[in-house]
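To the wet lab folks,

You asked to see what we're planning to order before we commit. Fair enough. Below is the target structure as tokens, and below that is the sequence we designed to fit it. If anything looks off to you, flag it before the synthesis order goes out.
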């Protein structure tokens, strides 16, 4: 009888050796893979530990930065006119003030001296810390110009502010400015005896609502401090009446993106809403403005500082 292949001991031995070698190879391969996996896991754990350390450091730095900005906001708030002071000068008013970050590049000023009443709204270039520092300088200079230097005319206040800022920032030997940021500002000077108002603006206007009509007095198309040599600002005069409401503001509200098509709010909408709400008490106007822009923004990020002042002078 013929012998089968599986009856050959040499072949059976070879097959057995092959399987043993294969099993040993697979065991070694599995052991190697296990070692590599453990090494990779150790490396991943070390990386995650490093990430945790870095995250904790970032959280600490973020907390320190936030604490510093919060304290800076207190300093900025201390420089802004106090609410009780504004209410003493203008009992009927509101100020909607919404920084993009903790501190703001927008600022406002209200003062009274020798029977003249001063109202200013300003927007420093940009936002955040640099603009906030500029706003603090602007606040101090306005106090100096109006209360110490006793400058009365609205155009001269802007011109003096321009010179003071230039002297502050133009300190390089080559005559170039250390800082090239500017300030947009609107300022009203009111004589309550005659009810005459002077207005000057660096880009920013003033709105006057009277008898369900909105009157706009535009500012000059130039910034404070970025102006050319020999700059001048125009001065407009306006006779106020009892019941008039003045609105001064920065551009942050009108420039905010939102709505169904993610477009800017725009000044035409701002004029419409101010005219619509002008019949309500000023405290309610502030609430409506806040609710309106919050609804408009929805989930969109705030892009700039916002500030709107509403004042009934008489």
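Sequence we intend to order:
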């Amino acid at each position: 009888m013929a012998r089968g292949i599986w009856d050959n001991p040499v072949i059976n031995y070879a097959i057995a050796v092959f399987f043993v070698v294969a099993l040993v190879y697979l065991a070694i391969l599995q052991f190697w893979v296990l070692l590599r996996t453990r090494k990779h896991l150790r490396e991943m754990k070390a990386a995650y530990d490093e990430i945790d350390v870095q995250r904790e450091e970032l959280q600490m730095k973020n907390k320190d930065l936030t604490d510093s900005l919060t304290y800076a906001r207190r300093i900025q708030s201390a420089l802004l006119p106090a609410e009780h002071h504004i209410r003493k000068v203008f009992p009927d008013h509101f100020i909607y003030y919404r920084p993009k970050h903790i501190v703001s590049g927008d600022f406002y000023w209200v003062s009274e001296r020798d029977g003249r009443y001063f109202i200013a709204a300003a927007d420093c270039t940009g936002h955040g810390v640099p603009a906030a520092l500029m706003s603090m300088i602007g606040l101090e200079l306005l106090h100096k110009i109006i209360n110490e230097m006793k400058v009365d005319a609205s155009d001269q206040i802007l011109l003096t502010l321009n010179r003071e800022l230039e002297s502050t920032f133009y300190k390089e030997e080559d005559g170039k400015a250390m800082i090239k940021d500017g300030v947009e500002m609107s300022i009203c000077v009111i004589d309550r005896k005659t009810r005459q108002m002077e207005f000057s603006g660096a880009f920013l206007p003033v709105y006057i609502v009277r008898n369900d009509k909105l009157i706009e007095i535009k500012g000059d198309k130039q910034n404070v401090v970025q102006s050319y040599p020999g700059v001048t600002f125009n001065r407009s005069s306006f006779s106020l009446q009892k019941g008039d409401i003045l609105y001064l503001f920065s551009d942050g509200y009108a420039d905010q993106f939102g709505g169904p098509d993610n477009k800017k709010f725009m000044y035409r909408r701002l004029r419409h809403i101010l005219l619509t709400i002008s019949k309500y008490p000023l405290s309610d106007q502030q609430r409506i403005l806040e609710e309106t822009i919050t609804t408009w923004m929805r989930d969109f990020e705030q892009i700039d500082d916002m500030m709107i002042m509403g004042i009934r002078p008489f």
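Structural context that might help your review: The mean pLDDT is 88. The chain is about 45% helix and 20% strand.

Thanks,
Computational group
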